Write a sequence for this structure.
């Protein structure tokens, strides 16, 4: 065979491999964007690089996969629901205290479900894996609560924080695992089989 034919074949193979790699990475990014939602974009913006963001989110998912996340018992659901109703009623008379109580209740629900209760950023990162559609609510509510600590939040801000906390609370309170948790449980069952 002529040497130029080998060169053409080699170039064609390199192009095919490069396209396959590009397509694979594109698919991976799309899957992660679907899984993490706005958290994916936030991570890319924060880190300035899509690959680095994907690695961070992969490590985050691996960390949460090893946690013993569990659904709440009916008794815990009832107890937490009653606590939430009390917090909402408290908001009328003492919105600042209601926001701090809401933050504490959300943290307690996370703890009972099996999430480690460390610093806020780690809690938000952990929540983003199984509850990506409400993690921004959590961040927004937490930021308003911190502004409230500095007397920089008005009543409307506090009302918005309560709405944000409620979105996460309701998602965490769900009777069963989230879609991500169901997916992880299915993978665990598949591995055991």
């Amino acid at each position: 065979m002529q040497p130029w034919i080998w060169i053409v074949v080699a170039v064609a193979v390199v192009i095919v491999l490069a396209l396959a790699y590009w397509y694979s990475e594109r698919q991976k990014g799309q899957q992660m964007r679907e899984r993490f939602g706005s958290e994916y974009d936030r991570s890319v913006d924060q880190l300035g690089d899509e690959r680095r963001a994907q690695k961070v989110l992969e490590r985050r998912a691996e960390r949460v996969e090893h946690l013993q996340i569990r659904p709440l018992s009916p008794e815990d659901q009832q107890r937490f629901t009653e606590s939430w109703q009390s917090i909402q009623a408290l908001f009328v008379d003492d919105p600042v205290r209601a926001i701090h109580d809401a933050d504490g209740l959300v943290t307690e629900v996370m703890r009972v479900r099996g999430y480690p209760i460390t610093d806020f950023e780690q809690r938000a990162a952990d929540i983003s894996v199984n509850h990506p559609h409400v993690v921004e609510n959590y961040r927004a509510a937490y930021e308003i609560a911190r502004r409230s600590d500095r007397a920089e939040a008005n009543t409307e801000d506090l009302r918005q924080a309560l709405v944000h906390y409620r979105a996460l609370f309701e998602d965490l309170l769900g009777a069963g695992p989230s879609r991500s948790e169901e997916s992880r449980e299915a993978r665990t069952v598949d591995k055991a089989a």
Summary: The chain has two domains: 3-65, 74-187. Confidence is low (pLDDT under 50) at residues 175-193. The two ends are 51 Å apart (CA to CA). Residues 3-36 form the longest helix (34 residues).
